[in-house]
Amino acid sequence: MIGLLLSCLARAAAPVEPPPGEAGAGPVAAAVVTPPAPLTPLEVAWPADAPAPADATPVVIDLVLLVDEQGAIEEITVKAGEAPFSDAAVAAVRATRFTPALEGGAPVAVYLPVRLEILPPPVNVDGVVRVGGPGTPIPGLLVTVAGQTVTTDAAGAFAFRGVPPGPHTVTITSLDPAFALDDPRIVVLEGEGVTLALYTKVDAPVIPGVIGTYRRQRDEVVRRTITAEELRTLPGTLGDPLRAISNLPGAVRAPLDAGWLLVRGGDPRDTGVYIDGTRVPLIYHLGGFTSVVHPGLVDRVDFYPGGQSARYGRATAGAVDLVTRPRPETLEVRAGANIVLAGAYAGVPIGEKGAVSAAFRRSYLDGVLNLVPGVTAEQAQIAPRFWDWQLRGDWGDVSALGLGYFDTLDASTADGDRASIQLQTHRLHASWKTTVAGKPLSIKPYFGYELYELTIDVLGREQIQQKNGGGARVELVDEGDGRFGWSAGVDGTFDWVNLAYYQDRGGIVRSARVDSPDAYFDVRIGKDDGVRAIVGARLDTLFVTGHLPRAAPSPRASVVFPIGDNVTLVGDGGLYHQPPPAEMLIGPPEGSTLLLEQSWGGGAGVRYDNGPWQVGVDAYSRSITRITAYEADGSLGQGQGRATGLETMVKYSAAGTSGWVSYAYATSERREQDFEAWVPSSYDQPHSLVGVVAIDLGKGWTLGGRWRFASGFPLRGEDPIEAYDVLLQTTETLDPADGRTQPFHALDAKISKQAKYKRWRLEYYLDIQNVYNRRVAEPVISGVWEAYGTQTYGFGLPTLPILGIEAVIGK
């Protein structure tokens, strides 16, 4: 009913201007637009700190929402209404998921003006005062309950709204001393009536009207967005939306769920990971349990498995951009713990323009495993260890985000040797938004410190890589009039890299400056309700101390072609470059001859969107050249690669039930020279299947499930390979003649409960990972040593029942 009302009003609305000062302001041609609609009833509760009125007159709040192409809320502007009612409306809208707006069958981002009516709480204490019980009613008496006072009417009746549960004294005061009245005691129960109380249930408020809709330009044609609220109940995520990326088409599962991103045939380093557009080393902690940023600071995660715009560079596969939340509108505090980690978040608004947010988390799964009878300290090392911190300040158009994390992962071998990975970074990201000639300009400088330490005892190898430096992104955007728009910028990094490499008591130490000041632009052509194209280019550069400079153009293009109201064709193609690994650039003498790694190709797909159903099919092909690695003869060279694939996804989302099934068939191959045969890459997994479902059981209970299947990883060489199980302290021999490791499949399940109170809510859950305890041998990703032809094998965690709890105040 709500969706029909929104659709009818939007189709009848005349073209309107976006709200003054909003992005995308300008005249909009009249077009048939199916506006967004809430997937669940939009309930706005009466604020607990607002006095309840005597009558049922609602409070009206006017908002303007910016709803993106995925149905997520990006911005909320209050046009009419005062606190605390406007705060309650904003909080309710942020917690609601919408269907995306459709124009010509294609999803579009729109500004959606909405009027909300906040109904007063229902009457839950009432009565009539009469003389002598059922006799004559007495008007004019003052009746007080829980701080509220009313006067009995001509019929002697009184009524109170929103009296909180618990024992209360009903105080009756009369100006006539002839009346001697006792003050009775009553008990108000949640959702129930008592002797002097009647409970009236009020229907949930609805959206009574829409003034109009406003278009905003669409972004890349292959962008998959995840919001924290949508994936809160997904098993295996521990409440972290980033962990769901590997469940989406375009990404395949990393061995041992290690936290590295493997996108469309790429290696871990081939996918760029960003926070608010600034490149960072990792987006997951090692072990993949959670992202490097507390979920309280995450607004959404944009995943580009291919076809990303020119603003994302230095990556030959995909890109992932974690977008942090804007300043909190109200006080919010979150604290939680489970058997893996504990953490807390607080967001405090300061005046009308400022806010401060802070978060911290610490893992301790290794300590928990060490407490299990029969598990030794060595066996407990199978669990990664990490901590992270974030501190953000906002004031008007200026913001600053400090963040850092520290990760350690140890794996023992059958001979008692140790393979160890340590990674840490501490960073400061800033942002300033202004206008130049009426165009939005953003300036985002950053400073960072990164440290990698990798050790493999059996090989006598140790590598320490330290990076100090910074950079900035300066970007100017002209959103145009719906037919033409552009953006241009400079994305520069400037680093001092120190490398220490030791083996068998010998070693080398190297230092160098590694800079990449890259310029880029994108041009958008076409109408939002028709064929639309984005054409762009980036100049990828590399300047290294003592080397000749490198530079290569990276042109890109994408197109959207709507067919009817529900079907859209998409396509993309481009050329992508990235620098070779820093340790290979400045370590061996051959590093000065290495060229920029390169990938070119593209893809095409079709989208079907009809109400709760969304279907997507994508095919892609990539040719990769100049892949930096040590060859079989020990020399440093640049080989070749290719990748092709077909990705499908069927998604369903309606009130009470949501989920998706995705299947991908993909091949990824490598070779050193033109005349050699192609062989599967280290992380080639031809078949990948994921099924996800979440069911609202009512009364705050939610049940979620996830089942995954993936082909085994290739085995190389002729000699038997040993895989060591740290947990069982046993060794399994892998025969390369088998071709691959055993296929992976696992079931995860999660049941959660939300209990809502006046000013806070409590959520507790049981997230059972690897329900039927299937553990297979898989390669260990270090992120560096694989390039040297070194590969170790291990086993993942057993069945892991993760019991967790989180309390949230203010959201």
Task: Summarize this entry quickly.
With 811 residues, the protein is mostly beta strands. The chain has five helices and 47 strands.
Share of helical residues: under 10%
Give me the count of strands: 47
**What class do helices, strands and sheet pairing give?**
mainly beta
Question: What is the tally of helical segments?
Answer: 5
Write down the overall geometry: globular
Determine Rg (CA atoms, Å).
30 Å
| Distance between the first and last residues' Cα | 28 Å
Tell me, rounded to a whole number, the average pLDDT. 80
Main beta-sheet annotation = 22 strands, antiparallel, barrel
Q: How much beta, percentage-wise?
A: over 45%
Low-confidence stretches: 1-30, 197-230
Describe the structure.
There is one protein chain. The protein has five helices and 47 strands. A hairpin with a 2-residue loop joins strand 34 (597-610) and strand 35. It is globular.
Descriptive keywords:
811 residues, mainly beta, 22-stranded antiparallel barrel, 6-stranded antiparallel sheet, 47 strands, 5% helix, globular
Secondary structure blueprint with pairings:
Layout: H1 2-12, E1 33-34, E2 59-67, E3 73-80, H2 85-94, E4 101-103, E5 106-118, E6 123-128, E7 142-145, E8 148-151, E9 157-161, E10 166-169, E11 171-173, E12 185-188, E13 214-216, E14 224-227, E15 251-252, E16 262-263, E17 272-275, E18 278-279, E19 298-304, E20 319-324, E21 332-337, E22 341-350, E23 354-363, H3 365-371, H4 377-380, E24 385-395, E25 398-412, E26 418-436, E27 439-456, E28 461-478, E29 484-503, E30 506-526, E31 532-544, E32 550-563, E33 567-578, H5 582-586, E34 597-610, E35 613-630, E36 636-654, E37 657-671, E38 679-680, E39 687-698, E40 701-710, E41 721-725, E42 730-734, E43 744-756, E44 760-769, E45 777-779, E46 793-795, E47 800-809
Parallel strand pairs: 17-20
Antiparallel strand pairs: 1-4, 2-3, 2-5, 4-5, 5-13, 6-9, 7-8, 7-11, 10-12, 14-19, 15-16, 17-18, 19-20, 21-22, 21-47, 22-23, 23-24, 24-25, 25-26, 26-27, 27-28, 28-29, 29-30, 30-31, 31-32, 32-33, 33-34, 34-35, 35-36, 36-37, 37-38, 37-39, 39-40, 40-43, 41-42, 43-44, 44-47, 45-46
